[in-house]
Structures are given as C-alpha cells and as structure tokens.
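step: validate -> pass
step: tokenize input -> pass
step: predict -> running
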Amino acid sequence: MQEWRGIMEEQEYRALNHVLRLLRDEAEPEIPDDLAGIPVLAETHRELGAVREALRSLSGGSLPPEIPAGGILADYLNALGAWLGGLVRRMRMAESGDFSRQADYAGELFDAFDSMALHLDGMLHELRKKEETLLLMTRDLQNEVSLRNSAVAALQQNELRFRHLASHDSLTGILNRRSFMERASREARLVGPQNIPGCIAIMDIDRFKRFNDKHGHINGDEVLKHAVRIVSEALRKNDFLGRYGGEEFVFFLGGADFETGLKVAERLRKSLEGCPVNIESGPVRITASFGVAPVIKPEIPAQAADQEGTDCIRMVIDRADRALYKAKRTGRNRVVAYEPELEMQEQQ
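step: predict -> pass
step: emit ->
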C-alpha cells in the first residue's frame, strides 16, 4: 500500500479510498470537501449511493427503488426490482384467488410459480364445483326433510282425525257409545275412593220418527245436531254426553247427587223446549224425555277391572232407561227419576 501511495498522487489515493469505503462501510461516507469538485468522483458517489440504497431495501425485505442512474449495476438492480415486483403482484393475485395471469418474466422461479398457480387454479375450480354440488345436495336434502316433516305432520294429523272419528259420533261430534262407556266407567270408579257421587241421564227426543216422516231425514239430522248443541251449552264443567243410539243421548253428570242430577236434567229439558229448530218450512218446537239414575258407591268398586266398570255403568244406564220409558209412557217432555219399583213393575 505504501508503494502505491508513493506512485499515486495523494488526491487520487484518497478518491479511491472513498470509493472503497462506499463499497464496504455500513454508513455512507461523505465526500471530503477538497474532493467534492472532482466530477467523476461525485458521479461515482451518487451512483454507488443509489446502489447501496437499493441493496439496503432488498436486505430489509422491500422492493428496491428504481435507480435513476445508468450503468450495468443500475440496470441489473432495476431489472431485479421489476422481476421481484412482478412476483409480488402475482402472489397478491394468488392470495385473492386469481390465478389467471401468467408471469411476464422468464426463470425457474417464475416457471415454478406459474405451475403452482395453474395447479391451485385447477384445485380452486374443482372446489367451487364441489361447493356448488354440495349446495345443490343441501337444498335437495332440505327439500326432502321438509317433505318428510310435512308427511309426518300429515300422518299425525290424520292419526288424530282417525282417533277422533273412532271415538266420536260422525253426525253430532260428541262421544260415540263405546267411548262414552269407557270414559263413564273411569269416572265412576272415582266415586269409591273420593266419595264423589254422580248420575246417569238418558234423553230421548220425543216423536222423532214422526218428525222424520213429515220433514225428512235431512231435517231429522238437523234436529239431532240442534239438540246436542243446546244441551251441551247447558251442561256443567264435569258433565259429558254421548250418542247412545238413534235419537237417544246419554249423560254422565259428574259430582252430582241424585237431587242435583234431576235438576240438571230438568234444566236440559227446558233448554231444549225453549229453543225451536229452524228448518226450511220454519221453526219447529222440539221436546225430549229424560230418565235419571244415580251412580251408587257400593256398586262401583274402586279397583274394578275395565269390564267390571263398564258393566256397572251399563247397569246404571239400564236403570235410567227404565225411568226414561216411564217418562214416555206418562206423557213425554218430562224428567223421571229411577225407583226400584220400576223393576218390580216390569217383573209383574
């Protein structure tokens, strides 16, 4: 070094040393004042400073700024920056799901990236197709579930309707004979342990056959529905009725002793008598006869089997029917209470 310094002028040596520091030092050195006037050194300092700045950006992971200076180093760095910029743009497009644009630059990295982008684009396309298929399958499944739920609801509704039809009279909508007997036997068994009295009443519409012969069966059906509607409104909370057959209706008067049962039956009779039925020819007065019999505690064992309970109810109904027969024999449109003497009269 000392030999070269002897050969070179001091100013030339310091200029070369400044260039060497630009290449080696971390901090960019400033041009000494006495060397700042050398044009070639100033230009070298400016271009190497731009190269340093571009390399610093690259080392920090950022794209390098475009170098305004000329020269092969600047050209290479500008080309590298453009290449990296294209790669970044492609990666950002891929990040957003766009794999359509191919690289504008040659090289193994871009070729590999293009191959990866094409593969990912194909996978994305397949995923979208599968997603559409799954959406269609989901909609079909939802429709199938909806149809099945509708079918189940319809079946449940039909089951309830069939149960209702099996237990109720189709014309009047009240309990049919079988269902009345089953419910009455259950209610009657409560008489035992809870000592709750009850009564059975039978109602028969007076001269119903004569009405049918005169006004027709369609109007006869209207009379039956009219009678059920009137007496239902006059019943108490614990009472219920059923169609026993033809124009006969049977009532269970829950929680009613014999005297109360007779009063309830009388109220039913008056309600029906006071409400004529309207048919095409005009209003027609309807009356009915009633027979009432008490549900007697010792005759309804609390632990009776279903058949035994039904037999007991049938026995009470038979007693009420005897009273009803007396009501019809003695002038109709009246309430008659069951008395043991009625059975004795029949036996005689």
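step: describe -> Residues 2-95 form one domain.
step: cleanup -> pass
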